[in-house]
Amino acid sequence: MNSNPTTLSAGFGALPKPPATGHVTLIINGVRREMQLAPWTSLLDALREYADLTGTKKGCDHGQCGSCTVLVNGKRINSCLTLAVMQDGNEVTTIEGLGQEGNLHPLQQAFIDHDAFQCGYCTPGQICSAQGLINEGRAHTEDEIRELMSGNLCRCGAYVGILAAVKEVVDKQNGKL
Fold it and tell me: Mean pLDDT throughout 117-128?
């Protein structure tokens, strides 16, 4: 066996050049953001690493837990399952864009009022998903809310509080409270 480094490296050739970054424009929480991103950058990583919005959580990174749920043009998506370049020009709303300190979004307040979280890790995704189902106008009963929120997991098991919080906001918007 020849251990000459020149011979060994010559057989492998030059390393491939990584793809160039691309220009992506996202309207995040109402603010236009221009970013240079690698083509494989997920929306989740763009939000956390490039826009410094860490409210959106990385749970499983496979679309199975819902921790990374955000709203894109008002619809809920798992931000780990979409590339940022696929959302170029779209409006993205994260938990930071739903309410402000001293002026909480009704869902944020309902989650507090109903103790709808324990560790809080899943809470941003839960709240964004809840806002998405409200936007869809399909959640009226507890069973519908359970079904539509089933993609958002809570390892602490705060589902009773989550259901009560979402139901309260849905009922208020439908004039039932």
Answer: 96
- pLDDT, one tens digit per residue, over 77-99 is 999 999 999 999 999 999 999 99
Phi, psi of 84 (to 5 degrees): -60, -40
Q: Both tokens of residue 166? A: 């979402």
The predicted structure's pLDDT at residue 75: 97
Token couple for 154: 């809570």
* Residues whose CB falls within 8 Å of the CB of residue 118, separated by 6 or more in sequence, listed in order: 154, 156, 157, 158
Which of 98, 129, 149 is the C-terminal boundary of a domain?
Answer: 98
The helix (run of H) or strand (run of E) holding residue 72 is strand 69-72
Question: For the whole model, what pTM was predicted?
Answer: 0.87
Q: Which domain holds residue 85?
A: 22-98
Distance in angstroms (rounded) separating the CA atoms of residues 166 and 33: 31
Query: Is the same domain home to 94 and 110?
Result: no
